[in-house]
Amino acid sequence: MPKAAYAAVRIVAPYLVLGILWIYVSDQALLLAVGGDVDRLGRLQTFKGWLFISITTAMLFLLSYSHLRRIHRLQELDTQTGLLHRRLFLDYLDDTLERESDANQLLVLILNIDDYGGVATRLGKAASERVLEQIGDHLRASFTADCLLSRLGTDEVAIAVPLATPREREKPLPVALRARGTFLQPLLDAGCRATACGGAALFPRDGGDANTLLAAASSALRAAHSRGPDHVNFYDDRLSRADRQRQDLSQRLREAIEDDALYVHYQPQARLSDNMPSGCEALVRWTGTDGRAISPADFIPVAEQFDLTRALSERVIGRVIADLAAAGLTDGSLPRISINLTPDEFARGDFVEWLQAQLAPMAHWPIKPQIEITEYAALRDLEASIRRIRELGECGIDFALDDFGTGYSSLASLRDLPVQELKIDQSFIATVNEDRRSLAIVKSITRLADTFGLRVVAEGVETEAQLERVRECYCDESQGFFLSPPLEISDFASLLRKGGPLRPQRDS
User: Fold this and answer.
1) Which residues does residue 443 pair with via DSSP β-bridges, in sequence order?
2) Are residues 291 and 232 in the same domain?
3) DSSP state, 103?
4) Alpha helices (H) along 327-350
5) Domain boundary residue, one of 76, 99, 114
6) Integer Cα distance of 400 and 479 in angstroms
7) Are residues 439 and 466 in the same domain?
8) Measuring CA to CA, which residue among 482, 381, 340, 285 is closest to residue 78?
9) Is the pLDDT of residue 410 over 70?
10) pLDDT tens for residues 63-120?
């Protein structure tokens, strides 16, 4: 039975049983009470009807409320581990901090497994998935209700623990070490020798709000990793120069988003059969007030760390729609446009409704919108990813797996994910002519994609030799500086209007 039908049966079954019992028992009781007095029987029947409506209304309210609360609760939790999503963790942590006084202290700890890729390979896919579930179960069973638990990434969790005793407040390291031991216990039980690094921050010393504390814990985690595996670091409130730069960059990015100072360049994609344009990828760009370009590799991670991805994505999508309309590219001359979204954005509970609303102006355009997500974003919760992609696919939105080939379960995921395109990671394309393993990976991906009816785009094609090699490997399309760099919207529109194939960008 489908889950929705089963849930509906659970709601109506008590109503049905109560109704049958009420009618049978109450009718018999009334007949015994009034005998042959028809007038009195009619009045009591009316009263009985109103009473029945009141009782069943209250019962339906309680049943519906219970099920809706359960649905809402499930949307707040990571389905694999049962832990809070990042956004809800931050919201609940802010609520907790508002109730705390400066005299109370709270430990925010981020933990992740050292060399998780190697651990997952040793355990195998099925066993590693089970261990992640067991980690969530073990953490929820081991911490009290006043602690907050969140899954931040595949093997990364955040824990917020009140420091209740003077001893804990004076020496919080043992609390962090115990938490790390609890986190690793399911792996040890599975017979896998594993270690984990941790980064810790303290309220109120290191920050007064959730975002600041989580950023401080992240900084401490990076310091722990720099020391090697199996280390726990506490945040030093004397900020390093790098941390100051990241916080400064986050503030400038926030202002750039609010001032609509970001813009988009468009990199053409071409069919390898004839080099004709087949679509493009929208790439966000940002020039600082000093006139120097700021790389997305610098500001995208900052947006993720400081919870700016939603605002950034909305600005980018809005800019893409405005650019296409202003350039007159809504006439069908551009077949497809791809837009990148972060794993955290894709994992949000309201992602489907949000994306539909953002892309609504394109609903009647002949351009096919396509969303690019990474393998990690798709595989962190495979069932939810399948559901989201299918639902949006029914609205005419395609999906592509970006950086394909870098995930440890890449090929297996294709069996279930209803995506339309694979973008082979540029690290393989860069060495496809020198490294036999890279060549073998590219050939394997194209063969498998052909079996599943998926389009393959070779990303990062920089030379003529690379272009010819990916053509020999039966890739469908290419993208890279050899055929065209990312272009401003006016130059991109001119390129499309000229018609004809893309011309290689050879050095003069």
Assistant:
1) none
2) no
3) T
4) 343-346
5) 76
6) 14
7) yes
8) 381
9) no
10) 666 655 554 554 567 878 888 888 889 988 998 888 876 667 899 999 999 988 888 8
The two three-digit tokens of residue 425, written as one number: 């990671």
Q: Is the dihedral of CA 348, 349, 353, 357 positive or negative?
A: negative
Angle at 87 between CA 85 and CA 88, to 5 degrees: 70
Q: Are residues 35 and 128 in the same domain?
A: no
User: Token digits for 386?
Assistant: 């399948």
Percent of the chain at pLDDT > 90 equals 49
Q: How many CA atoms lie within 13 A of 343 on its CB side?
A: 19
Residues 218 and 265 in one domain: no
Whole-number Å distance between alpha carbons of 352 and 400: 16
For residues 125 and 205, state if they share a domain.
yes
Dump pLDDT digits (tens) for 179-199.
999 999 999 888 888 899 999
Same domain, yes or no, for 176 and 279? Answer: no
Q: How many Å apart are CA 148 and CA 145, to the nearest integer? A: 8
| Sequence-separated (6 or more) residues with CB below 8 Å from residue 365 | 324, 330
DSSP for 465-492, written as a single string: HHHHHHHHTT-SEEESTTT---B-HHHH
Q: Torsion over CA of 77, 78, 80 and 81, rounded to 10 degrees?
A: -70
Which residue range forms the structural domain that includes residue 163?
86-238
Residue 174 tokens, joined: 């043992």
- Residue 500, domain member (yes or no): no
HSE (CB half, 13 Å, CA atoms) of 205?
Answer: 17
What does DSSP assign to residue 332?
Answer: S
